[in-house]
């Protein structure tokens, strides 16, 4: 599989590190501690195994060292979109 880096162009996945689901949001830790514990447990340990198009974080450690959001089909590994993660979350 090759990932088209916005800065470096198409590169082999050996240059990248998979860093997880890009659709999750970290729970707010400013409320009730009991609810926060349950929400944090779910955030860290309870994950779906999606089939089809999915957004993922990838880190280009052997290249430009950019964080990317890659939209990839998990069944065929076809990549339909790649953008800088900084454009998503400042």
Give the % helix: 10-25%
How many beta-strand runs?
6
The termini sit apart by: 28 Å
- Radius of gyration over all CA atoms, rounded: 15 Å
Number of domains: 1
Q: What is the SS-derived class?
A: alpha+beta
Proportion in β-strands: 35-45%
CATH architecture: 2-Layer Sandwich
Average predicted confidence as pLDDT: 90
Q: What is the CATH top level name? A: Alpha Beta
Secondary-structure element order, as H and E?
Answer: EEEHEEEH
CATH topology grouping: Folate-binding fold
User: Strand arrangement, largest sheet?
Assistant: 3-4-5-6
Low-confidence runs (pLDDT<50, min 5 residues)? none
The CATH superfamily name is Folate-binding superfamily
Biggest sheet layout: 4 strands, antiparallel
Q: How many separate helices?
A: 2
**Overall 3D form:** elongated
């Amino acid at each position: 599989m090759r990932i088209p880096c916005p800065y470096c162009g198409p590169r082999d996945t050996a240059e990248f590190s998979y860093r997880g689901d890009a659709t999750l949001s970290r729970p707010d830790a400013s409320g009730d501690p009991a609810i926060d514990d349950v929400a944090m447990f779910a955030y860290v340990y309870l994950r779906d195994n999606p089939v089809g198009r999915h957004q993922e974080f990838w880190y280009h450690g052997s290249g430009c060292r950019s964080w990317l959001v890659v939209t990839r089909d998990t069944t065929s590994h076809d990549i339909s979109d790649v953008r800088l993660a900084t454009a998503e979350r400042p």
